[in-house]
Amino acid sequence: MVRSLAYVGALLAALPSARAGFNASSTQNIAVYWGQNSANQANSQQRLSTYCANAEIDIIPIGFMNGISPVITNFANAGNNCTAFPDNANALDCPQIEEDIITCQKTYGKTILISLGGGSYSQGGFSSASAATSAAQTVWNMFGPVNPNSTVDRPFGSAVVDGVDFDFESGVNNLATFATELRSLMDASASSANRKFYLSAAPQCVYPDYADNPALNGVVSFDFIMIQYYNNGCGVSSYVPGATIQWNYNFDVWDNWAHTVSKNPNVKILLGIAANTGAASGYVSGTQLSAVISFTKQYSSFAGIMMWDMSQLYENSGFLDQVVSDLAAPGSSPPATTSTGGSKPTSTSGGSTGPTGGGGGTVPQWGQCGGEGYTGPTQCQSPYKCVVSSTWWASCQ
Question: Bias category Gly residues: which stretches (predicted)?
């Protein structure tokens, strides 16, 4: 039985502790990005507090701080209620978002993150390790607890976010140094403020993620990651219900990362999906979505669903209800399978960058055909060719 949002909202409003904010021991977390109005309709993105009142949403990453050195912020139509700082026209002072973050946290118990990067980030990272360290300090002074000794502009004023999300989609020089310093600052603040601050990332499903791998590769402790299983050949649309081998869908690869590579062995993974047909390529719903969620529940790192983005979700009537229902339903118990959508991350260096393996058969479009540790077929179905993307990954394109 699918629960109505109105009924659930009324019920949980009376029990605010029943479900609010990220819960590492839950498999039913729901995160939805807000701030970019990807539906691009005049009224499709309301103010942040509107969505915090929805009891089914636990985590809201705000996108984006799409420039770090120098600082750039962009919140689509929400920026209409902001003003530029006098010393930087590309950084916005947003008292309405400040007010809403405080309401979201204190009234509704939501986990609010500031997301760095996004598709328009193009600064390429930091020129040196010292520049990366300084940039991390700037970011935390902007969005963390108010530092009386800092003079940096704070886009959300007195509001303090619950953490930082990395949504870098292009290369970032000295990212590991930046992330390490940011994690250190967050942990120090957590001790003095007596509250938890989260570090998350939103890598592409292809393993290893090109942009975020320097930080994800056992260097920095992330609390959870929200993998983009859309806009990629390894996305949820490539999952084949009932198949013994998943040629493309590779949650097992990332689950193995969580247990064998991640600096935090208890890191959690949210399955990222498109919230509507116009949100991204690879949108799924109905039985396909139910099947892939049921299958993915078998992995111990699974912690729920991430969606892109809020404006698209609210244009898609009934979709959130389905996600909530699918997460609450008993998971299937499929046989343990190995995807070919990315080799197991058992090694982080060395090895050939060309196709390896050589098992029988041919590989369909977007399927893996090579990479370190891969033992499957390397011959692509016509007319596709095996294209190397990294040490660990080659696919038929």
Answer: 351-365
